[in-house]
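Most newcomers find our protein records easier to grasp once they have seen one. Read left to right, the backbone structure tokens trace the chain's path through space. Nothing more is needed to start thinking about how sequence determines fold. An example says more than a description, so a record of this kind follows:
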Amino acid sequence: MTAARQIPRIAPLAPPYEPELAAFLAKWMPPGSQIEPLALFRTLAVHEELAGRMRPLGAGILGPRATVAPALREVMIHRTCALTGAEYEWGVHAVAFGEPLGLSAAQLAATVHGSAEEECWDLEQATVVRLADELHSTSAISDDLWQALSAHFDEAQILELIVTAGWYHVIGYLCNGLHIEFELWARRFPESIAAPAQKAPSA
């Protein structure tokens, strides 16, 4: 499932940057980040006006004022990226958010190869996976799933989860359509679902 390396269709901007551009790119990165701005951001900066309109929504989804718990947000993001084949964005989020927020290897693998029925998910996580799947496949939400969502999330959180799914479809289209080059430090899609750790036999 891992995508082959491809030549970017739009070359990302490269240093040295003019001060105004450097400040613009820094806004896309976490405060104090020491790594090069992401290739995705440097590609979007080719159309700085468009990128400037996009950034507030992306930052808001990931920011402290979001209503969805960060780890649940990442389940939605990872699953949506996997469904769209956006390996670039999946791998960035796995390192920058998923792993630091406590998603296990089995959970990360299940976002790519599994389903909402995997044992690694609790009820809230499984409902988010179901939502990602239904939105991707039908662009709608069934009555049954709506009832499940309403049992776990308030209306603001449901709205936020739907918008998050839509936003990462946009990101997936950009990554795939433009052949964004993979970050060297990011993860790639796992080959399969990680097997659960086996307990050592007792003496």
In short: The radius of gyration is 18 Å. DSSP finds nine helices and no strands in the chain.
